[in-house]
Amino acid sequence: MNGIAVAGAGMIGKRHLAALRIAGLPVHSVIDPDPATAAIAAEFGVPHYESLDKGLEAKPAGVVVATPNVLHPEGAMACISAQVPVLIEKPITTELADAVRIVEAGEAANVPVLTGQHRRHLPVVRAAKERIDAGALGTLVAAHAMFWISKPDDYFETPWRRSKGAGPILMNAIHDLDLLRYLLGEVESVRAVQTNRIRNHEIEDACAALLTFESGVICTLQISDAVVSPWSFELTAHDNPAYPPTDQNALFIGGTHGSLSLPRGEEWSDGGKRDWWQPIARTTLLRGGDDPLVAQLENFTAVIRGEEAPVCSGREGMKSLAALVALRDAAQSGKTEVPEV
């Protein structure tokens, strides 16, 4: 296999390159218009290309698109046109019409399109899904998810991070929404409010949402990148060494026979008594395992070889984006919004 090219050598692109090295998977090239990123390619002993077209001419087995969000459509469509499988970092795009175009083009050309939703690869998330699907929690009733984190001021020195297409809704809540869809099913409707009063950027710095799922589950979701707290998957999942770990949870799912809290993987039950006077006991789901980015790239490679189906396809990424767009629109309009796909 010719190896995987990484398009975009920023923060997440570097993590993909490191994950490829950990997995023992061949790196094809680094693609980035910034001449300074040639040093990153040299570190991995691979060519550096300043345009995706040039990189695609060199025939990589697949491409990870880790460019700024607004450039995802251009990169994905170039890969599909070149018949090269593509893994697109989350969110698949910033606009739903672009996501639909990418997914339909990939399916028409029979080119695999995957979305980089790495949390689906966490062992504790897979274990939680198995417990939910097995009916261990009974009928699901409600859920609550939190993303409260504090991004430093210098994070916003990069202009696109202050502009439309960025913001914690698109940049971060996409992870939480995809995880909620994976565990709870499709979103039926969304109501939300947002504010930018802390930084006064073009994009929001806090949002609160109420989601109703087709199953009838109701869920509250709180999002902010301006709050110092221990409650976000970034800090609690311990899957990214860049973040200081905390011993907390960020997602809670409750049913008529039990509850789950993630990512600690705590399952709570009263032994079927369903009585608030009864003692309630905790068991812990499998938590440890491979780096989810490594597992995601291993799945990408297996998809390229025709050995596995995508854990998170482009179509799944599109559906999560549809839920996210509904959330974004609801926060802006103050109305109840419905995902369009």
Report on the structure:
With 341 residues, this protein is an alpha/beta fold. It has helices at 11-23, 38-44, 52-57, 72-81, 96-109, 123-133, 167-184, 233-236, 292-304, 314-333; strands spanning 4-7, 27-31, 48-49, 62-65, 86-89, 113-116, 140-148, 187-195, 206-213, 218-224, 251-255, 259-262, 266-269, 281-284. An eight-stranded mixed beta sheet has the order 8-9-10-7-11-12-13-14. Strands 3-2-1-4-5-6 form a six-stranded parallel beta sheet, with helices on both faces. Helix 4 links the parallel strand 4 and strand 5. Helix 1 (11-23) crosses helix 9, helix 4 packs parallel to helix 5 (96-109) and helix 5 (96-109) packs antiparallel against helix 10. The longest helix is centred in the C-terminal third of the chain and has 20 residues, at 314-333. The two termini are 35 Å apart. 48% of the residues are buried.
